[in-house]
Amino acid sequence: MYTYKTEILKVGTKWFSDKANESDIRLLDDLLNERACEGWELVTYDYMATSSQVRGAFVVTFRKEM
I need a surface site. Which of 12, 16, 17, 18 has the fewest CB within 10 A? Predict the structure, then answer.
């Protein structure tokens, strides 16, 4: 059996594009590595742009065996 944990990782403000950039990817990598050290395994992630194209976020789900 697993315990699941979902987090929202907000990314930098976007003015001309709603796409993830290198800085956003570094934030995601840092989160993934931090959770891996805590014993969490990545299940899924998705990049979600906002309708205003100003600020997006990664929705990241991890699991850990109980």
Answer: 16
Which residue's entry shows tokens 């993934």? 32
Q: Which two tokens stand for residue 20?
A: 């993830």
Please compute the mean of the pLDDT values over residues 32-38 and round it to a whole number.
Answer: 98
Residue 29 phi, psi (nearest 5) = -60, -40
How high is the mean pLDDT of the chain? 86
- Euclidean distance between CA atoms 28 and 23, whole angstroms: 9
State whether residue 32 is helix, strand or coil. Answer: helix
Q: Which residue type is seen at 1? A: M
pTM of the predicted protein model? 0.80
